Amino acid sequence: MANRFGVKLQSRLPNLAGIYPFSAPITTTNCSSETQKSRIVCKKRAFGCRFPRRVVLGIGVSFWSQFMSMAGIIGGKSFMASARQKGAIEQVLKNVEWPEQFPFRDEDFQRFDESSDTLFYEMPRFVTHIDDQAIAALTKYYSEVFPSSNTPGVAVLDMCSSWVSHYPSGYKQERIVGMGMNEEELKRNPVLTEYVVQDLNINPKLPFGDNTFDVITNVVSVDYLTKPLDVFKEMSRVLKPGGLAIMSFSNRCFFTKAISIWTSTGDADHVMIVGSYFHYAGGFEPPQAVDISPNPGRSDPMYIVYSRKLATA
User: Transmembrane region positions (predicted)?
Assistant: First the structure.
């Protein structure tokens, strides 16, 4: 049975709220409500602390659960309860019947903190935002899907980059471009051959020619994009035909800067949301999802949504 994503979804969007029956206990994501020790750590990191669980903005059932129920897929057994099982995430984007129009609204891309992103990212953060096991899993995945190191003519774009890209050790290409918000972080990134400082939420236009890159990566940052369709259309433009776009994410974020539709929903919803960006941007093959979580329940989860630019005739 196809996943009827569009059934009454648009009318339900204002009530998005991601409380899952299977979720681990939700902790506050506000430093002021943590222990005194946590408050000190958060203050030292100047908003750079990682929070253990997503924010919940309201009370209700996730739109994904509602959709799956309406589609008749859940039956007497909760699909979302099974989504924690290894492999279930891969089913989220299978045979989706997308609505004709992009189903999300402007308010879904608002954030708790709408102040300048340039100011927020002004101070470099030489930290990692997922744990070591999740990083290792992502690096391993890259090693399996990237073009071989030092392949003539290959160009890679690391979007929303920082001081580390989590690429395989020693990985090199003639051109690896990093785009990010902090120049000091980008300067430290040893894999990059060049970098661009740009706020995609202000200017989503990518400063590159058509059909430039073989691979585009984005690590734990897709949830901060307030103009995702514009960015994904640009990704399609700058990718070579058949080029690969890899969006990876966990359940970690700077919650005040993540878009509301992300902080109010859960992991399987996030897969569907990112998949919708690929679909509605156009120019991509049907997106697919992979769960590369290395140690479910004991380390950070790690998910991939990827697609390739359609090959030209």
Answer: 55-76
